[in-house]
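Dear Dr. H.,

I hope your travels went smoothly. While you were away I took the liberty of generating a structure for the chain from your last submission, since the lab meeting agenda had it listed for discussion. I wanted you to have the full record in hand beforehand rather than looking at slides cold. The sequence, exactly as received, is reproduced here:
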Amino acid sequence: MAELSREAVENLTRLKINFIAVDFDQTIIDIHTGGRWNGTSTELAAHIRPHFLHFLRAAADASLHLAVVTFSPQVGFVSDVLRTHFPAFADQVVIRGRDGSWSYEGRGMRNGKQAFMSSAVEELATKHPHVTFAKNTTVLIDDDANNTRIALKDGTRAIWLNPSDPDCLFSEAMKMT
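The corresponding predicted structure, in token form, is as follows:
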């Protein structure tokens, strides 16, 4: 999986992708918490898909900017899972969830994960003023086909992650042109 991840990330960088936004439930992890996880962070961290262990590391190694965009309000658990598996770069990953900690004041689309990604980009652009973030340099990875359809309709690249076939992450990233 490490090699597939590296190849997928290489293709994304060839396409000038510099920002990857990834859903959490049923995407990074293999379960859907419904925003109501009652277990421990350690128990939740055990549900990370091996695909994302490799893919997110490869993306970070390639200096791509990362965000987790989730409808869950439990962003503390998301942060804990990232720190457990990615201590070297977890603090650089922007997290946007339905926790009331952020807002998006722009004029862009607010449907699906678009406002979540836009808010993350606003934060990243402040931290990295030399980087140009745009819809065509962004990719959303999400198990919810509606979110990926909305992103594509809005001009943002997207990969639908089939929860029953997470290997599609690699093939779909390689197919992108």
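Two observations you may find useful: The radius of gyration is 15 Å. Residues 114-127 form the longest helix (14 residues).

With kind regards,
E. W.
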